[in-house]
């Protein structure tokens, strides 16, 4: 749709601008402020320069948290994207059962994140939880609050349960937009199921899948509540991801300087991914308009 | 060449029938995976704590609604739901009110800096709440809004306003511009046109945006927990504090969890076809 050039539209955007400026720009400026200053209390601050940034960048604790975070996001994407596509391909195309599947699949997406954590915390317990108890019967020495590997398994399983449906729903929406004529043409050409997927379905899903990958990367990259409730970041620091570390630093120990420097670098990563996301979106819109 | 393709496709066709069955099996397994954890929570909510700890059962032996009764009669529990709903509704109304006009501007006009602004909104949706927790705490403490519903409602606009703008813009671009032009020729003023003609046209979009604002505010924990202490404490925060205490009443905790799922489960049917669109910020 060709839009009209009209700078008066700014007035329509103004309320959003004011509101989001209040809830985003002011806090961000506070963060920037803290990141370059130090204090001995009593609200007396002095210039610190880039000291905090150096400290955070060279801190082994931050490095390992970043490594864990990347590994977590990597595992999540590696499981959820293929699984989501597979589920989307298996879903009924239309009718009553399609609605049933949509509703049931979307349920985990709408559960408060700490309730998701609570559910899996309970499920994993050997005394009252289904999974823990079953593993216990199978004679597996299961203890996710002691064993780091078990903690990872439960956190990853939880996230797969929580968010795979999002990928599936997006992929499903992409599949729905493929005209029936494409499949008929493929049938006439006697294309195999794999070729239909590779040359018809996958290219048509490309746009939505990119959105899905970016959304899942972003949200897994800033995950806080669920692992916090299930493992509390433990055992040790095995499952303490960037957000958990940051909250500990900022609200637990009130290390304002390092926390602020940490926040800014965290935010830069987000900014970069957002930019990729935005580019994908606008290219998608252009392709649609053609 | 033709012979090889024939021999190749023949087995593929005879496999067509079992293939449909595989699909069903995968789907059933996946749905079971989705539902079993929720079932487990519901099951525990119907048991007494003694029964939960005493013996391992797959379904409640003596189903009881005592846990729900505890929550609905104990003020320290049910006040959490009231607090949550209060700030969630405030946030939804606020977000939609400002987002409607902005989304209209983005979908209809080009103006200086529009693309940058749209991108900047997106970065706020993507921003980790952990980054904002401490500054929010200080900001709202300094203006005397700490531990009020409005503080949480304002804090959640951080990600909900961008979300609402993007979703609404996605719906609005589907409305042909000729409708606007015809209305103006007919002598409608902009506000009258917007309320009388345009808003009914994107009613489903507004509904979907409202649903997602409600949902994302409802499920959020970190900011709402950081910004409240007693008076505006949300149910999600009350739940995590119970987890930390010794001698947890699992039954009551499970019942509280089940009650937080109810609002989403009630309206999910109406937005089922837009869920993907909402989560993908109005695209797809």
TrEMBL record, chain A:
The chain crosses the membrane at residues 12-36, 70-89, 96-115, 151-175, 196-218, 259-280. Coiled coil: none annotated. It comes from the Bacteria. It is a multi-pass membrane protein. It is found in: Cell membrane. GO terms for biological process: transmembrane transport. Residues 66-277 form the ABC transmembrane type-1 domain. GO terms for cellular component: plasma membrane. Keywords: Membrane, Transmembrane, Transmembrane helix, Transport. Belongs to the binding-protein-dependent transport system permease family. This is Carbohydrate ABC transporter membrane protein 1 (CUT1 family). The lineage of its organism: Bacteria, Pseudomonadati, Pseudomonadota, Alphaproteobacteria, Rhodobacterales.
TrEMBL record, chain B:
InterPro entries: BP-dep_ABC_trans_perm, MetI-like, MetI-like_sf. GO terms for biological process: transmembrane transport. Residues 81-271 form the ABC transmembrane type-1 domain. It is a multi-pass membrane protein. It is found in: Cell membrane. The keyword Transmembrane helix applies. The chain crosses the membrane at residues 25-42, 85-106, 118-137, 149-172, 193-219, 250-271. This is Carbohydrate ABC transporter membrane protein 2 (CUT1 family). The lineage of its organism: Bacteria, Pseudomonadati, Pseudomonadota, Alphaproteobacteria, Rhodobacterales.
């Amino acid at each position: 749709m060709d839009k009209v050039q009209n700078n008066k539209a700014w007035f329509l955007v103004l309320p959003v601008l004011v509101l989001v400026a209040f809830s985003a720009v002011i806090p961000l400026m506070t963060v920037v402020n803290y990141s370059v200053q130090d204090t001995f209390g009593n609200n007396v601050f002095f210039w610190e320069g880039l000291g905090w940034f150096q400290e955070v960048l060279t801190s082994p604790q931050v490095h390992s948290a970043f490594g864990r975070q990347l590994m977590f996001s990597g595992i999540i994407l590696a499981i959820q994207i293929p699984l989501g596509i597979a589920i989307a391909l298996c879903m009924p195309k239309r009718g009553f059962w399609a609605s049933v599947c949509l509703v049931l699949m979307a349920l985990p997406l709408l559960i408060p994140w700490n309730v998701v954590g609570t559910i899996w915390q309970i499920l994993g317990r050997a005394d009252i939880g289904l999974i823990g108890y079953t593993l216990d019967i199978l004679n597996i020495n299961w203890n996710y609050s002691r064993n780091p590997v078990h903690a990872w398994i439960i956190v990853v399983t939880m996230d797969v349960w929580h968010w795979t449906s999002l990928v599936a729903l997006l992929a499903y929406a992409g599949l729905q937009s493929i005209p029936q004529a494409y499949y008929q043409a493929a049938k006439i050409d006697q294309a195999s199921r794999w070729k239909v997927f590779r040359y018809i379905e996958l290219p048509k899903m490309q746009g939505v899948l990119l959105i899905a990958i970016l959304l899942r990367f972003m949200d897994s990259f800033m995950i806080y509540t669920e692992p916090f409730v299930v493992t509390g970041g433990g055992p040790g620091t095995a499952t303490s991801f960037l957000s958990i570390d940051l909250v500990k630093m900022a609200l637990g120990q009130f290390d304002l300087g390092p926390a602020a420097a940490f926040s800014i670098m965290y935010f830069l990563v987000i900014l970069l991914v957002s930019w990729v996301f935005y580019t994908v979106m606008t290219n998608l819109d252009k392709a649609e308009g053609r | 060449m033709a012979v090889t393709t024939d021999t190749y496709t023949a087995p593929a066709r005879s496999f067509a029938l079992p293939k449909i069955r595989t699909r069903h099996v995968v789907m059933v397994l996946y749905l079971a995976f989705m539902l079993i954890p929720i079932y487990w929570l519901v099951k525990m909510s119907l048991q007494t704590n003694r029964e939960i700890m005493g013996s391992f059962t797959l379904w409640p032996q003596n189903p009881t609604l005592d846990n729900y009764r505890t929550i609905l009669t104990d003020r320290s529990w049910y006040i959490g739901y009231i607090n949550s709903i209060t700030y969630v509704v405030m946030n939804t109304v606020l977000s939609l009110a400002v987002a409607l006009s902005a989304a209209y501007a983005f979908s209809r006009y080009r103006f200086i800096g529009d693309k940058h602004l749209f991108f900047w909104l997106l970065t706020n949706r993507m921003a980790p709440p952990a980054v904002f927790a401490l500054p929010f705490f200080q900001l709202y403490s300094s203006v005397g809004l700490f531990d009020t519903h409005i503080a949480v409602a304002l804090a959640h606009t951080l990600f909900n306003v961008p979300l609402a703008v993007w979703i609404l813009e996605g719906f609005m671009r589907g409305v042909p511009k000729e409708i606007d032009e015809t209305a103006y020729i007919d002598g409608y003023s902009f506000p009258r046109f917007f309320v009388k003609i345009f808003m009914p046209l994107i009613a489903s979009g507004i509904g979907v945006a409202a649903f997602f604002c409600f949902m994302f505010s409802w499920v959020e924990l970190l900011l709402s927990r950081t910004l409240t202490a007693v008076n505006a404490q949300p149910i999600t925060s009350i739940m995590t504090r119970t987890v930390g205490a010794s001698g947890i009443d699992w039954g009551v905790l499970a019942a509280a969890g089940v009650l937080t799922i109810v609002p989403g489960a009630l309206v999910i049917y109406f937005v089922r076809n837009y869920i993907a669109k909402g989560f993908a910020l109005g695209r797809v």
